[in-house]
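Journal club prep — side note

Before the paper discussion, L.F. wants everyone to see what a predicted structure for a comparable chain looks like in token form. Sequence:
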Amino acid sequence: MRRARISMVVTAAVVAAVAVGSQPAAAIPAGLTAQLPIHGYQEMVLDEAHGHLIILDQAQLLVTDLRGKKLASVAEPYPTHLALSPDSGTVYVSVLGDNGQSSTIKAFDTGTFALKKTYDLYDGNTVPAELAVTGGQLFFSYRNIRSGPPGHSSTGVGSFDLADPAPVPRMAKHWVQLDVAPHIAASPAAPGVLLVGQAQVADYRRSVELDRYVVGPGVFTRTAALPADKAPLSDFGFSADGGQVVAATPWPDRYGGDLVLKSSDLSTVGNFDHSWTGGGEHLATGPGLVAESNPDGEVDVYTLGAFGDVLPLHRYLYGVDASMGHGIAFSHDGSRLYAITHDVDRDTYALHVEENPGLPQVYVFLDSRLPVPLGQPFAMTGQAKSAKPLPTSVTVRITRDGKPLTDVQVGADGRYSFTDQPSATGKHVYRASYAGDAGHVGSEAEIAVTVTDAPAGSGSPSSGTTSTTTNAGTSAAADTTFESAPGQELAATGGGGEAGMLAGAGAALVAVGGAVLLLLRRRPVGR
């Protein structure tokens, strides 16, 4: 079973008899990462029928295998959005017009990537945006750059009849909005249904009204709507079975979390809190799963139950990278998660492939008293937690300085403990690891304990001391040092208090209730 890993290294002197814990917020699954040969990013679709990822660059249609290896590319100036036909035989690309030429939508064969058909909008002022295929229709959202009152555009949804040998665009709906084409979504699991989000604020990702339409040749009928005061939406889409709609909001703390809606009438059946990461931007769904990304390069995975119940499973962290819009996708069976990120500093793009995103993570925590006097046995405790119950007779392997120390039994409450007595002063790194099982992904956690020849409590900072540290890891407080990998997150609690703060370039130490705490931003190990 593949394991996830988070590395944590601490050396500290604290007030005697105060327990200081090392508790990662989540272990980090280490999956495949492949650099992509692109110099910009627009959108991605997953074509499992052919074993392809289809990625839009700023000037090309890039085709890779499912591990990110380039297979082919098609030069295409100014592409914007993609849609895959329900039978995976055709990929549609909306293309902006250039030098007064009409904007078009092009259809490519997904087996050969030969151009099959061009759908012309016959109007250089109509700019196509997002695409969706359902009910025998190719839908496109658009804005008309020369219509509408001053400061606004005429925007809406149009369509082509795919059965028509010489199709002409049919403008099914018009709105007057703030220069932003609507967001649209469809699913093979909900044939003949189109979701339309009307963007009524300047930020195009945030729509305040969601409409459900029944569609077909000559049919475009609104059957349900999400009230505008429910929440501004950054993204929405159907669940894998088509029975629900998941809608993300960039401000979940204001609106009670992201929404789970019944797809038949858009009534709310559940919600889930995503406010601890500042709100989600983009969604993907798999069988019984939903993934949500945010601009900080974080992707969270949740279970999605039949009655709108949502349970957190994973958090994937990609360092300083930014998760891209429409850049996450589940495999058809939910066994893989694909995510594209952008390293802003290096201006490079990467594909991440995570195995078993639907298996719950087992988070392994460690706690210890610091510092430890030489020659005195000390106890270390920990806890194994998961969103789903662990099997019976679970053991956690403990190593000290890379060498096996003991295997400890995990109790029914997930807690475990062991005793050690290092024979040398200095820093000793303890690692707890759970290998995983058929229903869980394992993890590792580390904590470094300083063994000193001084009596317990000597040289420790007084209660209430607050210090800061740099990336070099040396604290300004006397006899207190903290070390960590740059960008890592570490939290310590004790003395009846709990605190910490995020730091970009450095870290922060906070004294609460007589304990010194450290919280650094975490990133994957070995990526």
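L.F.'s comment for the group: Confidence is low (pLDDT under 50) at residues 1-29, 456-527. Keep this in mind when we get to the figures.
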